[in-house]
Amino acid sequence: MAKSGFVLSSTAALAATLALVGLHIANPSIAAFRESPKEVVDEVWQIINRDYVDAKFNQVDWRQLRRQFVESRDYASRAEAYRAVREMLKQLDDPYTRFMDPEQFKSMQIETSGELTGVGITLGMDDETKQLTVIAPLEGSPAAEAGILSRDVITTIAGKTTEGMDLNQAVSLIRGPAGTTVKLGIRRGDKTFELDLKRAKIEIHAVKSEVRDTSVGKIGYIQLRQFNANASSDMRKTIRTQVDQGVTGFVLDLRSNPGGLLYSSAEIARMWLNNATIVSTISRSGENERLTANRQALTDRPLVVLVDNSSASASEILSGALQDNRRAVLVGTQTFGKGLVQSVHSLSDGSGLAVTIAKYYTPNGRDINKSGITPDHVVRLTEKDVQRLNRNRDLIGTTDDPQYAKALEILTKQVREQRTPSASR
Predict the structure, then answer these.
(1) What pLDDT, in 10s, does the model give residues 276-306?
(2) Catalytic (active site) residue 324
(3) Quick check: pTM over 0.85?
(4) Out of 107, 157, 204, 207, which could bridge 234 as a Cys pair, Cβ 3.0 to 4.6 Å?
(5) Is 338 among the catalytic positions?
(6) Domain edges within the chain
(7) What is the tens place of the pLDDT at every residue in 72-102?
(8) pLDDT score of 22
């Protein structure tokens, strides 16, 4: 059986490829197609039959699909077999269980390394409308510079309608060599327009930080953009450096963070938590796996976390763990609401399969799928705020940013309360 690894969400980072959130992505075992292209169809059916989160397969007769796609058909080519696989998976009505051809699977592995080529959009499939929706543009990317915003709907790609298009198809159409262009049709509320985006090579730096002087001394501001392979080591260095510089507290900004590696999220949670549950997952068999923090915290200084409706998957694991354990105060707006765990399998011909295998729950047992996490202090940006911050992204994370300003207000109060001696009794 091909190697596999766990993933949490199904966002598609159109900087180059699918942005999967996961525990581990094994190198694909490239082998010749065995006796016929039918083998990959059978392989996919077997994995879904064994691992899919819903034992009833979303009310689909999965054995009947085996008779239809495996037992009664022969396939003359890989392309024909791949079309059959996608047609079979489509019956599950689960956009997060999906097939990747060898090129798409290889690109997904490259994307988790933190270097991308494309336009810099993270896409998700809206569960209700089935529309391709922007989760977030990557900062500094062609998409961000062109003014694409979270929750924009992609209506066309290179003149082709996205109606009925899955994430894999969208990725294939949007990605391409650096220097080439792609035209996207965008719907934002009642407005529709088109943008020509020039593809580029994009380096993703997971952590951006700064130590700032305030009325209560130095505070550490940390932006965590995604949970890639380098995020936990970068975060550890940042926290230690800021502690050494004498910060009195931290603001951790998870806004527009679409997720990343599950264990990166858990490792970062351990930098803030002692002896606490981080997250638990429950499979279709009811098996419960729990990740915990065990006396590895780097600091106990006050922490405020910024989230918004583009904070998804691994971002929600971290913010949910910090909120449930009362380690941090959350400020911003409702998070995206992706609480699904997937397993990524490399198949015998070098293609890949992502399968939804479980749900994850916060330490207090909250199922946040489709509902997200509600901040302790809800602070909404007005349309004017969004436009102003989008025009000048240097204002993000400053006192001209209403959500950051609220976080700083809360952090300042916490630091002052720590310094005030409690009344003797």
Answers:
(1) 999 999 989 887 889 999 988 999 999 999 9
(2) yes
(3) no
(4) 207
(5) yes
(6) 117-203, 207-280+290-338+361-417
(7) 999 999 999 999 999 999 999 998 899 999 9
(8) 34
- C-alpha–C-alpha distance, residues 397 and 167, integer Å: 31
* Catalytic hit among 324, 349, 401, 406: 324
Whether the CB-CB separation of 266 and 278 falls below 8 Å is answered with yes
Token readout for 75 is: 């396939």
Residue 27 has pLDDT above 50, yes or no: no
How do strand 340-346 and strand 352-361 relate by DSSP bridges? antiparallel
Q: What is the CATH number of domain 117-203?
A: 2.30.42.10
**Rounded to an integer, what is the distance from CA 1 to the centroid of its chain?**
27
Query: ∠ at Cα 325 (322, 331), nearest 5°?
Result: 40
Greater model confidence, 103 or 98: 98
Domain 117-203 shares a fold with domain 207-280+290-338+361-417: no
Alpha helices per DSSP H over 212-275: 231-244, 262-270
- Distance between CA atoms of residues 19 and 7, nearest Å: 10
Residue 309 CA neighbour count, 13 Å, CB half: 14
Element (H or E) spanning 196, and its range?
strand 191-198
Residue 110's pLDDT is 65
- Please confirm, yes or no, whether 198 is among the known catalytic residues: no
Mean pLDDT within 193-210: 89
Which residue has 């090579």 as its token pair? Answer: 201
Catalytic residue among 4, 141, 313, 346: 313
CA-to-CA distance for 414 and 248, rounded, in angstroms?
10
Retrieve residue 218's tokens: 């130095």
Give dist(CA 91, CA 276) in Å, integer: 40
pLDDT above 90 covers a percentage of the chain that reads: 64
104 by DSSP, 3-state: which?
helix
Q: How large a percentage of the chain has pLDDT more than 70?
A: 89
Q: Which helix (H) or strand (E) holds 331?
A: strand 329-332
CATH fold label, 207-280+290-338+361-417? 2-enoyl-CoA Hydratase; Chain A, domain 1 (3.90.226)
